[in-house]
Design goal:
Strands 1, 2, 3, 4, 5, 6 and 7 form a 7-stranded antiparallel sheet that branches. Helices cover 8% and strands 28% of the residues. It has 2 domains: 66 residues, no CATH class; 155 residues, Jelly Rolls (Sandwich). A hairpin with a 2-residue loop joins strand 4 and strand 5. It is globular, with a radius of gyration of 23 Å. The protein contains 3 helices and 7 strands. By secondary structure, it is mainly beta.
Length: 249
């Protein structure tokens, strides 16, 4: 028996990350912000050499970014101001076709299917829409519901919670006084701890001690129904439930 090899059209490419120092500042602690302001980010130069030049001039973004760090003329500032360029789009995600409601809302339930899994703060740059992208309940317990006009078969459910990223410094220290403030070694208070997933009222998954930002629930076999519910019963301390995204496949 012979096997006929099939040639695939492939393009080998890479992108060299490059970021302006001021764009790093919102993600750094006060100490490192001062270091960057005084001395720069300390990114080493390229160690390669070539008589014709290593860095491609046809892929030079706007200064101060380096060649080969993005398409020509590209930069964060080149994006349309207030654009949500981080939005996730997947045609196979059933959640995008559902109507979303909640038992209570301090922030809209529909945020869980808008494709953005973090709040876009003004300090991130000109491209940021300075907007929230999570559902937040008004109290606990709380239920988020996705409903379809006709039954759908679901094999996998993704849920993204809030771990309070970009909100506070998580500094590791031998000092109990410091670590007790940010609790870097323990689940964050805003993170959902206990929840259930229900399809047409039947429990398909249950978690009692979650501390992760994202959970993927893969079912043993597809289940069919019209209404998927996320029932949150407890967090690690916060009085409300916070969920950034729900996907269903």
């Amino acid at each position: 028996m012979t096997t006929e090899s099939k040639k695939l059209p492939l393009i080998d490419s890479d992108v060299h990350n490059s970021v302006a120092a001021d764009e790093l500042l919102p993600f750094l602690s006060n100490y490192w912000r001062d270091v960057v302001r005084r001395s720069g980010p300390g990114i080493p130069p390229t160690v390669y050499s070539s008589p014709v030049g290593v860095l491609r001039e046809d892929a030079r973004p706007e200064p101060p970014l380096f060649p080969a760090s993005g398409p020509a003329t590209s930069s964060f500032n080149g994006l349309h101001p207030k654009s949500n360029f981080l939005a996730f789009a997947d045609a196979s995600d059933l959640a995008r076709k559902a109507s979303v409601t909640a038992s209570s809302s301090a922030l809209p339930a529909a945020h869980v299917i808008d494709g953005v899994t973090r709040d876009l703060k003004a300090t991130f740059g000109r491209w940021s829409s300075d907007s929230a992208h999570r559902w937040e309940s008004a109290s606990l317990p709380a239920t988020l519901a996705l409903e379809w006009p006709a039954p759908v078969a679901i094999k996998e459910v993704h849920v993204t919670f809030d771990t309070h990223h970009f909100e506070k410094e998580l500094v590791l220290s031998l000092s109990d006084h410091l670590t007790s403030k940010a609790a870097p070694r323990s689940p964050q208070p805003e993170t959902v701890k206990a929840y259930r997933l229900l399809l047409d009222g039947h429990v398909i998954s249950e978690v009692t001690d979650n501390y992760l930002r994202k959970r993927i629930h893969s079912l043993a076999f597809p289940v069919t129904g019209r209404k998927l519910e996320l029932e949150v019963t407890a967090t690690h301390g916060a009085p409300t439930a916070r969920v950034y995204e729900v996907r269903a496949y």
